[in-house]
C-alpha cells in the first residue's frame, strides 16, 4: 500500500515537471549539472579514472573537457527522461530520428525476428520511439521489446517500466527474457528486441573477454547466445547526439544469420562498433558505470 502511494506521489510530481517546455527543463538540467558535478561530485573519481585509462593519449585538459560535457549530457538525460511522461509523438519523432530503419523492416518482412544491440549512449530511454518510425503493415503480428534489469526500488522500477512502454513496446526482465521471447516465437509473433549489452556482467554471466577502448574487458555474451538460439538477425544502433535534445540512431547490420558465426564473433563485432561510437564522441557514453570493476585477463593467442 505504501509503495502504491509513493508511486502515485512520485508520478504526480514528475508528470507536473514533464508538462514544462524543454527550455525550462534545461534550466533544471543546468542546475542538476552544477549539483551533481560540482557539489555532490557524483562518481567523479571513477569517471576521471575511466577516461584516463581509456584515453591515455589525450592531455589532462582534453579529458577534463570530455568529463564536464559528459556530466552535462547526464543532466540532460535525466530531464529528457522525465519529459517522456508528457511528450507528443510528433515532438519525439523530431528529436529522436532513425536512419536506415528499413533494415529492421526488411528482416521482419522476411519473417525473421531482430536482436538490436545498443548501449548507454545519447538518451537510450528515447530509443523505444523506434515504433513511430518502423513500417507496421496491418495484419502483421510483431512486438517491439526491450530487456531491463529490475531496479531495487519497486517505486522507481514501476515508474521506469511506465516510461519505457510510452511508445507501445514491452519490457522483459533479463532473467526471463529468453523464455518470454521463445514463447512469442512459438505463438508466431515476430520481435524486435533491444539489449543494452555494454553493462558490466553480473555474477555468473557468461562473457567474452575482449580488448575494448584499450582495456581488457568482459562483454556479456548472453545476448549473442539468445540471438543464435532464436535464429534472429542482429543489428547495431549507432547513436549520435546532434545537439541538445536531438539524437540520431543509425541502424547498422551486424549479421543476418548469427548462428553461422563462430562463438563470440557477434559480441566482438558489437564491441568494435560501440568503440567507434564512443571514440567519435566520448561524452555521450555513461562513464559513471563501473565497467572495469573486476579485472579481466585476455586469452593467450
Please explain how this structure is put together.
With 301 residues, the chain is of the alpha/beta class. The chain has one domain. Helices cover 44% and strands 20% of the residues. The strands form 2 sheets. A 7-stranded mixed beta sheet has the order 1-9-8-2-5-3-4. Helix 3 packs across helix 4 (60-83). The protein is globular and about 50 Å long. The mean pLDDT is 93.
Report how far the terminal alpha carbons are from each other.
Answer: 57 Å
Shape, principal axes of CA atoms = globular
Q: What would the average pLDDT be, to the nearest integer? A: 93
Elements, N to C (H/E): HHHHHEHEEHEHEEEHEEH
Tally of individual helices: 10
* Spans where pLDDT lies below 50 across 5 or more residues: none
Structural class of the helix and strand makeup? Answer: alpha/beta
Strand line-up across the major sheet: 1-9-8-2-5-3-4
CA gyration radius, whole angstroms: 19 Å
Number of separate domains: 1
**How much of the residues is beta strand, in percent?**
15-25%
Main beta sheet strand tally, sense and closure: 7 strands, mixed
Helix content: 40-55%
What is the number of E strands? 9
Outline of the structure:
This protein has 301 residues and is of the alpha/beta class. 44% of the residues lie in helices and 20% in strands.
Main traits of this protein?
301 residues, alpha/beta, seven-stranded mixed β-sheet, two-stranded antiparallel ribbon, 10 helices, 20% strand, globular
Secondary structure layout:
Layout (H helix, E strand, L loop, with lengths): L1 H17 L3 H19 L3 H11 L5 H24 L5 H7 E4 L2 H8 L4 E5 L23 E7 L5 H11 L5 E4 L3 H10 L3 E7 L10 E6 L2 E6 L1 H9 L2 E11 L2 E10 L9 H16 L21
Parallel strand pairs: 1-9, 2-5, 2-8, 3-4, 3-5
Antiparallel strand pairs: 6-7, 8-9
Helix pairs in contact: 1-7, 2-4, 3-4
Amino acid at each position: 500500500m505504501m509503495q502504491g502511494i509513493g508511486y502515485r506521489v512520485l508520478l504526480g510530481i514528475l508528470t507536473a515537471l514533464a508538462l514544462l517546455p524543454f527550455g525550462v527543463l534545461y534550466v533544471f538540467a543546468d542546475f542538476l549539472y552544477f549539483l551533481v558535478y560540482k557539489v555532490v561530485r557524483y562518481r567523479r573519481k571513477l569517471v576521471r579514472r575511466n577516461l584516463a585509462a581509456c584515453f591515455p593519449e589525450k592531455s589532462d585538459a582534453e579529458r577534463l573537457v570530455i568529463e564536464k560535457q559528459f556530466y552535462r549530457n547526464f543532466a540532460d538525460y535525466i530531464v529528457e527522461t522525465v519529459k517522456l511522461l508528457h511528450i507528443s509523438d510528433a515532438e519525439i519523432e523530431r528529436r529522436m530520428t532513425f536512419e536506415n530503419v528499413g533494415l529492421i523492416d526488411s528482416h521482419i518482412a522476411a519473417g525473421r525476428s531482430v536482436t538490436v544491440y545498443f548501449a548507454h549512449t545519447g538518451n537510450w530511454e528515447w530509443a523505444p520511439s523506434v515504433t513511430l518510425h518502423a513500417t507496421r503493415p496491418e495484419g502483421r503480428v510483431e512486438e517491439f521489446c526491450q530487456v531491463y534489469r529490475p531496479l531495487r526500488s519497486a517505486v522507481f522500477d514501476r515508474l521506469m517500466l511506465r516510461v519505457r512502454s510510452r511508445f507501445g513496446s514491452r519490457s522483459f526482465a533479463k532473467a526471463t527474457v529468453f523464455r518470454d521471447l521463445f514463447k512469442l516465437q512459438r505463438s508466431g509473433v515476430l520481435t524486435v528486441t533491444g539489449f543494452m549489452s555494454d553493462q558490466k556482467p553480473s555474477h555468473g554471466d557468461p562473457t567474452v573477454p575482449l580488448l575494448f577502448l584499450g582495456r581488457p574487458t568482459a562483454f556479456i555474451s548472453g545476448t549473442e547466445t539468445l540471438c543464435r538460439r532464436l535464429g534472429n538477425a542482429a543489428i547495431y544502433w549507432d547513436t549520435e547526439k546532434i545537439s541538445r535534445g536531438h539524437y540520431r540512431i543509425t541502424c547498422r547490420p551486424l549479421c543476418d544469420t548469427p548462428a553461422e558465426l563462430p562463438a563470440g564473433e557477434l559480441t566482438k563485432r558489437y564491441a568494435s562498433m560501440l568503440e567507434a561510437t564512443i571514440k567519435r564522441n566520448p561524452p555521450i557514453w555513461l562513464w559513471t558505470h563501473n565497467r572495469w570493476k573486476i579485472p579481466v585477463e585476455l586469452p593467450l593467442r
